[in-house]
Amino acid sequence: MNDAQTTVAQLRQLVACFVAERDWEQFHDPKNISMALAVEAAELMEHFQWLRSDQLGLLRDDPKEMEAIGEELADVLAFVLAFANRMEIDLAAALSRKMERNARKYPAQEYRGRFR
């Protein structure tokens, strides 16, 4: 699988099958999944804790560190997909609507190159 050839629906199915094969649906209520998502996001942040911005290139140049970061990011994504499955949220539609709102809230001509 890779990003260029895999749909969101395929990723959702991959997670759904993994959860179903282990009979974990019983544990996957929205509260538990959202908490697990926060925990995994914190584990991703740990890789960057105490680094200065000018040191971030060191991470990208370290294959073992990039593998570990990729695994944490995959955990985050898996819980996002599990949450969407449980709550029956169409992620593509939700993201599209959110980006449209963001475009109105942060017009490119006013915000290009700045965050405020």
Tags for this model:
single chain, Helix Hairpins, 116 residues, mainly alpha
Coarse shape: globular
Quaternary state of this entry equals single chain
- Tally the beta strands: 0
- Please tell me how large the radius of gyration is: 17 Å
Give the count of helical stretches.
Answer: 6
**What is the CATH top level name?**
Mainly Alpha
- State the order of secondary-structure elements, H for helix, E for strand: HHHHHH
Find the structural class using helix and strand composition: mainly alpha
CATH topology: Helix Hairpins
Q: Which second-level CATH architecture applies? A: Orthogonal Bundle
The termini sit apart by 38 Å
Q: What share of residues is helical? A: 55-70%
The largest sheet is:
none
Assigned CATH superfamily: MazG-like
Round the mean pLDDT to the nearest integer and report it: 96
Please give a structural write-up:
The chain has helices at residues 8-21, 30-46, 56-60, 63-87, 91-105, 108-111. The protein has a single domain (8-89), classed as Helix Hairpins, CATH 1.10.287.1080. It contains six helices and no strands. The longest helix has 25 residues, at 63-87. The protein is mainly α and 116 residues long. The protein is 69% helix and 0% strand.
